[in-house]
Each structure stands twice: as structure tokens, then as C-alpha cells.
Amino acid sequence: MKKVLFYCQHILGMGHLIRSMEIARGLTDNFEVCFINGGQVVDGFQAPPSVQVVNLPAIKSDAQFRELQPVDPALSLDYVQTFRQEKLLRILRDFQPDVLMVELFPFGRRRFSFELIPLIEAAKAQGTKIVSSLRDIVVTKKNQARHEAKIVRLMNQYFDQLLIHGDPILHPLEESFSRVADLTCDVHYTGYITQQPGSSRSTIVDQMVLAKADPMIVVSIGGGRFGYELLDAVIQSAPILEKKLPRHRIHVFGGPFMPNDKFWDLRVAAQDSRNVHIHRYTPNLMAYMEKAQLSISMSGYNTTMNILTTGVNAMMLPFTGNDDKEQTMRVDRLAQLGKVRRLYAEDLVPSRFAAAVIEHLRYEPAQIEVNLSGVESTAHWIKALTEDKCFAEASDSPEQFLESSMPQMRVA
Question: How far apart are CA 412 and CA 408, in angstroms?
Fold first, then answer.
């Protein structure tokens, strides 16, 4: 089998890790896959047994995205960076991949150029194909023209293929990156990357909760490093909701990266509310969403895909830190289509929030069709690249392949 080396670095949340691992899972039918994780290891997160995982000494970001920090406080950043650069080059030499997939770079993660540029240059020198794996919306910068010029230069210098994990009917890349036409590599939309229901092993707690017949509201904030104001609003609204919705149970997931003191503060705040249950993390959030009458969450990529996959009624609060517009763009588009309700800061007052929850439980969300076959079509394009097939050989044309794999979005 041909080989794919997949590099993923998550620094604040865990969405990049979840999406990248689903891609890796989908590649294993045709490729031997080695997955490089540069971020913090998530307890309970399970990689497919067919994927070889190498965890580098982890690096994270502070909440303001201002500086990189080793997850292990006993290590210096200089030491970790040097070790990682050398480790990556050894893995490349030993694994000898046919394809190197790099998640997000160079559209993001350019602070990791210290290890990525040497890795990419060494890979190209031995004939490896280089692929950028990119979500549908990328972070914009204050000096956007300069930012985009750097992206174009790096893409055209190093990359053979750009795979955009989205549907251009919902979010064309040009919304957040204007120079797609200046890229000289192959560019393909794959459709969205979704988790497969039942792909993660259920815990005993999951099994007990999901077996109950009580109506469920599920609340999540991704990795747990931000979004606390949403959880606080849920807990403060719980007494009102208990009176109005006596049978409903609210299951709140703080996230694996939530600081311990914050997690225990939440548990203390909720201890008198019989309708609220605080959990740290589940790898089976999809199963909760399948059962729930309502999902309350941030509007990150993976949570949004879970909502689209399960069809659960949803209320979403976008993350706006660091002037990031990604989540706002995503939730605004879905709200415009009648699929979700966007939450604003002023909605988080307990009485107003409880009223919004009760009202939205009665809401019938629009049914939309969007391409969710990103895992399969990513594997298709990687296979075509390793076989040196051009568009006409891999499929009649990129447009025809997209038409066959992407249903046109419909709003009912």
C-alpha cells in the first residue's frame, strides 16, 4: 500500500484533531497512514486501530493566540521546537510517505514554519506529494493582502494539491481567501468532513444516559478553553427551565481542556439543579445529538457537522475571540437558511435565555442538503494524486465529480 503522513496541530480547541482523524480513518482503505499529532493528547479520544499515531511533545496557545507554550511546563519552548523538528525529519525518513498531508498550513499555523518548512522541503526532495488539508472558512488577518500573498507564495512553491473540506454552495473559500484563482496547484472541494455515528466506543456513563427516555438538551463548547459564558447561562437558567420543562434533562459537556478549577466551579453551581448533569468529555457527542431535542453549542466546524448530520434542533453562540470571524460566518449562514438560531451576548441573561430555549424547542428547523461526503472524496483525490491522474482521468472534470458527489443544497 502507498503511504500518507498526516500532520495535525491543534493549539486551542480540538476541532482540527477530530476532523483530521476522520480523514485519516477514511484513507486507511487505500493507504498506510501515519498520523502526527502536535497538540495536547485528549484522554478518551480514540484513533482508529488502523492508523499509526505519533504524539509529538505537545504545544498549545494561550487563550489570546499571542504565544505558543509547551503543554508540559517542565520543558522549554526552544527545546520542544528543536526536538519536534528533528523528530519529524526522522519520521519522514523512516516512513517514506508517498503523500504528506498538512492540516491548515499555510492558511494558518505559520508559527509552526520552524518545523513544517524543513519537513516539506525534505519530503519534496524525496518525491513526496504535498497536500494542504483545509476547512471551509479560514481566519482573516488585519493586513489581509499581505497575509494572502504569503499563502499564495507558499502554496505555489511547495504544494501539489489543496483540498477544501466544505461545500462551495454553503461557503466558497473566496469568502475568507480572495486569491484562490492565483493558486497553481490542483484545488478541489471535497464536501464536509463528518464523524461516523457509532465510530467511538461508548462509556458506561454514555450508555446509562442514552438509555433513558427523558427528553434531552445537550450543551457543549468543544475543547473547553473558551465558551464559559454559554455554560454559565445554561446553569443560571436551569431553575427556570426545571419549572417550565420538568421532564427535560440538560447534559453539559465542559470539554477535555477546560481548567479543573472552572470545571468544579460548574459542578458546584449546578449542584442544586436536578435537571442539569455536568460531564467532562465524551467521544460520543454525536450519539447525544441524535437523541437530543435541542443542541446548545458554539459554532465550530465539527459541532456544526454533527448538527447537520443528525438534524437536531440547535442554538449556537459563535466564538469571536482574536477577531475571528469563522464561527460567526458559519452560524449566520445557517441562521439565514432557517437551520439554527444564533445566540448573542445579550441572550445569555437567564430569563431571556430560558425563554429562548423554550421557544426554540418548538421550532421546526429547515431541512437543507449539503455535501457531507468529504471523507470519501478526500480519499478519492489523494488516490488520484498518487496515481498522477489529472482531472480528466480522475473524473470527467472537477465539476462533474462535484456534481456526482455533492447534492445541491435545498431549503425546505
Answer: 13
Non-local CB neighbours of 332 within 8 Å, separated by 6+ positions = 342
**Does pLDDT of 390 surpass 80?**
no
Same domain, 220 and 188: no
> CA 53, 56, 61, 65: dihedral to nearest 10 degrees?
-80
- What's the total number of domains in the chain? 2
Domain identity same for 301 and 330: yes
Cell of 341: 438560531
Could you tell me the residue range of the domain that residue 220 belongs to? 204-361
* Count of C-beta atoms within a 10 Å radius of residue 407: 15
Residue 322 gets which letter from DSSP? G
In the three-class reduction of DSSP (H, G, I as helix; E, B as strand; rest coil), residue 325 is classed as coil
pLDDT in tens, 157-215: 999 999 999 999 999 999 999 999 999 999 999 999 998 765 556 677 788 888 888 89
Residues 121-149: pLDDT tens digits? 999 999 999 999 999 999 888 899 999 99
CATH of the domain at 321: 3.40.50.2000
User: Do 275 and 380 fall into the same domain?
Assistant: no
